[in-house]
Design a protein that fits this description.
The protein is an alpha+beta fold. The chain has one domain (28-185): Distorted Sandwich (Ganglioside M2 Activator Protein, Chain: A). The chain has helices spanning 2-20, 106-110, 118-122, and strands at residues 28-36, 47-57, 60-69, 77-86, 96-103, 124-125, 135-145, 158-167, 173-185. The strands form 2 sheets. It has a 5-stranded antiparallel beta sheet, with no helix packed on it. A 4-stranded antiparallel beta sheet has the order 2-3-7-6. The longest helix is centred in the N-terminal third of the chain and has 19 residues, at 2-20. The chain is globular, with a radius of gyration of 20 Å.
Length: 186
């Protein structure tokens, strides 16, 4: 009898959580509020993004941009993501360092087959592959599903991300971009 009451109480609690809007089970998506393809002070950087357009549509977002590569990049690269979290979009003075993600051998990842990002990389025209060749690579009207973030416990934070890509051998900064947004309920 006690387990029946406990089960009923648990079901009632879940029902209240889901329908009161406080549950982590609510559908979430990515909301991108700002995407700068070049960091201030780095206007002459070898790789930058231009003509950036990000449109949120419920759980998906559509992205168009141009990746501008000013010179051939023959060495492998390393990717650094600097993540900061803020209490809200209106409280940027509350931002704190959350994590730094460093990924070496980025070309191996970029050129990888059967990876979650393989389809996105293939949408560049002309194809974007390492070693990077000088040119303009267009990424047009590509749609991404933001519902993959439903499982991440990062709701209620506003995120600022600094993206740096460096030459793996010389440590030269090749690309610097910033992104701001949040994972929010729909």
């Amino acid at each position: 009898m006690r387990s029946a009451w406990l089960s009923l109480l648990l079901q009632f609690w879940l029902f209240i959580q889901i329908y009161s809007g406080r549950s982590s089970f609510r559908p979430k998506t990515v909301r991108i509020y700002q995407f700068k393809g070049i960091c201030p002070g780095h206007e002459d950087i070898p790789v930058y993004y231009s003509d950036i357009e990000v449109v949120n549509i419920n759980r998906t977002f559509r992205v168009s941009l141009k990746a501008n590569i000013r010179s051939d990049i023959n060495n492998d690269m390393k990717l650094w993501l600097f993540l900061s979290r803020c209490n809200s979009r209106d409280a940027l003075d509350s931002c704190e360092t959350y994590n730094t993600i460093k990924i070496n051998h980025f070309c191996k990842i970029l050129n990888g087959e059967n990876m979650p990002w393989t389809d996105a990389v293939r949408k560049f025209s002309p194809p974007l592959r390492c070693p990077l060749k000088k040119g303009v690579y267009e990424f047009k009207n590509s749609t991404f599903d933001g519902s993959a973030f439903n499982r991440f416990p990062v709701l209620n934070w506003y995120w600022k991300v600094l993206v740096n890509i460096k030459d793996e051998i010389t440590d030269e900064l090749l690309q610097c971009a910033t992104l701001e947004g949040q994972i929010a309920p729909i």
